[in-house]
């Protein structure tokens, strides 16, 4: 089916209102983009953040009467004059097929692979995590996930316990179980992440070894041999006490979702309790790894 997208530049205060208007005018889907490539950090639970200059993108059937939509847009009073918008035709492709064709098995470290279900497994003797892209973050393609997967491949030992803080798709916790861990606790603020992790755990036959929680339900007294938190620098610093408490004395910690410019501030937040390894860097993102002092 051919599509047309309407891109409307607005402010963070009006982004949600513009989204509601586009949906009311017949948009099949609405997304938000940053107009000026400004960094935005992962929100805390219950918090919604938009960019100061936000582009709201509405996706319409190409046969939709877009002249009427544009006329309605021009009548919106808070734009204070001609709204900043752009209509664009999208190429008529089988977007699902295109997406599937471009997602391939990926290797991490010496023995760990992530494989989509529609591809052949490159090495049946390796440690293979079966994972299809979905609603929750984490397929291995982003540098932060890749850095954590490489670390897990080199770190996890049989019978260890692991916490995956900010579990997203469940990729890190599932990889840890496939590498020999006996138990994983996964925590995420997004209920869709819990659903995705549950589905992916079943796909990999490890559902009996992973426990998944929203923050309000997470265990309070559990300590693990290995803790990995792939979120972002701001939340990593703010949630330092909670994340640190999951690591047993002498246990190992990996933190990612951090830009090189933010690394030292995160190290400073944890340095009273942890001794850090050299920083691992990939495409301006870093992974910090450390051991908790006994």
UniProtKB/TrEMBL annotation:
Enzyme class, UniProt record, top EC level: transferase
Reactions it catalyzes: L-lysyl-[protein] + 3 S-adenosyl-L-methionine = N(6),N(6),N(6)-trimethyl-L-lysyl-[protein] + 3 S-adenosyl-L-homocysteine + 3 H(+)
Taxonomic classification: Bacteria, Pseudomonadati, Pseudomonadota, Gammaproteobacteria, Chromatiales
Organism: Rheinheimera nanhaiensis E407-8
Entry's localization field: Cytoplasm
Primary location class: cytoplasm
GO terms classed as biological process: methylation
Xref: InterPro entries: Ribosomal_L11_MeTrfase_PrmA (IPR050078), Ribosomal_PrmA_MeTrfase (IPR004498), SAM-dependent_MTases_sf (IPR029063)
Gene field: prmA
Protein's job: Methylates ribosomal protein L11.
SUPFAM superfamilies reported for this sequence: S-adenosyl-L-methionine-dependent methyltransferases
Name of the protein described by the UniProt record: Ribosomal protein L11 methyltransferase
Entry's family note: Belongs to the methyltransferase superfamily. PrmA family.
Entry keyword set: Cytoplasm, Methyltransferase, Ribonucleoprotein, Ribosomal protein, S-adenosyl-L-methionine, Transferase
């Amino acid at each position: 089916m051919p599509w047309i997208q309407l891109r409307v530049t607005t402010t963070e205060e009006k982004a949600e209102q513009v989204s509601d208007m586009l949906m009311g005018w017949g948009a099949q889907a609405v997304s938000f983009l940053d107009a000026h490539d400004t960094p935005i950090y992962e929100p805390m639970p219950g918090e919604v953040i938009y960019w100061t200059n936000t582009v709201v993108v509405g996706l319409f059937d190409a046969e939709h009467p877009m002249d009427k939509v544009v006329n309605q847009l021009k009548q919106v009073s808070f734009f204070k004059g001609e709204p900043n918008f752009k209509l664009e035709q999208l190429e008529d492709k089988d977007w699902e097929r295109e997406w599937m064709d471009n997602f391939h098995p990926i290797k991490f470290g010496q023995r760990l692979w992530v494989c989509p279900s529609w591809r052949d497994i490159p090495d049946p003797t390796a440690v293979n995590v079966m994972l299809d892209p979905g609603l929750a973050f984490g397929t291995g393609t982003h540098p932060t996930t890749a850095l954590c997967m490489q670390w897990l491949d080199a770190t996890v030992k049989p019978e260890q316990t692991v916490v995956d803080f900010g579990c997203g798709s469940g990729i890190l916790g599932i990889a840890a179980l496939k590498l020999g861990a006996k138990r994983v606790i996964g925590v995420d603020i997004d209920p869709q992440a819990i659903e995705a992790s549950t589905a992916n755990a079943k796909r990999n036959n490890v559902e009996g070894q992973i426990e998944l929680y929203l923050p309000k339900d997470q265990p309070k007294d559990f300590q693990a041999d290995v803790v990995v938190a792939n979120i972002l620098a701001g939340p990593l610093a703010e949630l330092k006490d909670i994340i640190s408490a999951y690591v047993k004395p002498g246990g190992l910690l990996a933190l990612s979702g951090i830009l090189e410019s933010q690394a030292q501030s995160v190290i400073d937040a944890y340095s009273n309790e942890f001794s850090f390894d050299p920083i691992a860097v990939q495409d301006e993102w870093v992974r910090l790894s450390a051991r908790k002092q006994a």
